[in-house]
Amino acid sequence: MTAGLPTALYLPDGDGFVATDLTIGPWDPGLQHAGPVAALLAREAERVTGIPDGQTVRLAFDILAPVPVGRVQVGARLLRPGRRIELVEAVLSAGSSSADRERPLMRLTAWRMRSSAVEGTPQAGVPMPGPEESHPETAAFFTTDVAYHRALDWRFVHGSFNAPGPAAAWTRALCTLVEGEPMSPLQHLLVMTDAASGISAVLDWQRATFANVDLTVALVRPPAGEWLGVDATTTIGPAGAGQCFADLHDATGPIGRSAQALFVAPR
Q: Residue ranges of the Acyl-CoA thioesterase-like N-terminal HotDog domain (predicted)?
């Protein structure tokens, strides 16, 4: 981690967590980027699993309200228990009052399955060039120097943080998710993947809002390794909505896809 920056996205604090400045998103310095929040929810979902050696195959996040940079609480429960397949729900809230704690700001439902050895299908498509063939870049649109974009080492295959259009990039974690714990590949994937609509933006950050209201990640196998990749394209419709779709990779090939619905409006 770069000297002087936080070493984690979240610090444990009693029955909750305190978000560090590395969670700050691009729209408001008082609000978190949804990527770290998504990873924190996935961590909580896997802590209540009844299939401890299983795999998380689909994660659907609903962003119900902005998440402030500060103290948050997370909780999870099994919606559909099972020995082979289960559905887990995790929710995040902020604030100290009972009303605040009962108001979810972001929600996850995740399908998890037992892992077992089967014959997989051959990987299709052209492999994504690796991080050694990519160039480093730092986002220029964040309003504070210490924010989400400092949590990962970004290496672009094509496209750019700072120019419109489709983009593909590799990332490596520069911090942990929770202080004192290693960041798992799935947590890293979620911290990264919510930025798909940011790296592939087609509108000017200064003139338009195109925040996502959800994030869905579907995986054919668990991510592995230090470097994870995202190849994203954003399309804006004529009625104030957009969609971002991305292919997700690790060093050995494709691992799944993501989708985000975007609310689009002039700033």
A: 25-113
Residue indicated by tokens 């609509």: 197
CA separation for the pair 66, 105 (Å, rounded): 7
Model confidence pLDDT, tens digit, residues 203-229: 988 899 999 999 999 999 999 999 999
Both structure tokens of 53: 């050696």
> What residues does 28 pair with on adjacent strands?
none
CB atoms < 10 A from the CB of 119, how many?
Answer: 4
Neighbours of 253 (CB within 10 A): 14
Residue numbers of the chain with a pLDDT score lower than 70: 1-3, 124-126
The structure tokens listed for 91 are 């929710």
pTM exceeds 0.90, yes or no: yes
Strands 176-178 and 8-13: parallel
Crossing angle of helices 34-47 and 185-193, in 10° steps, is: 150
Choose among 195, 267, 206: nearest CA to 234.
Answer: 195
Cβ–Cβ < 8 Å for 109, 89: yes
What pLDDT, on the 0 to 100 scale, is given for residue 123? Answer: 72
pLDDT at 125: 65
Q: Which residues pair with 113 in a beta bridge?
A: 55, 85
Question: What pLDDT does residue 2 have?
Answer: 55
Q: Does domain 9-115+130-266 have CATH number 3.40.50.11420?
A: no
| Cβ atoms of 54 and 6 closer than 8 Å | no
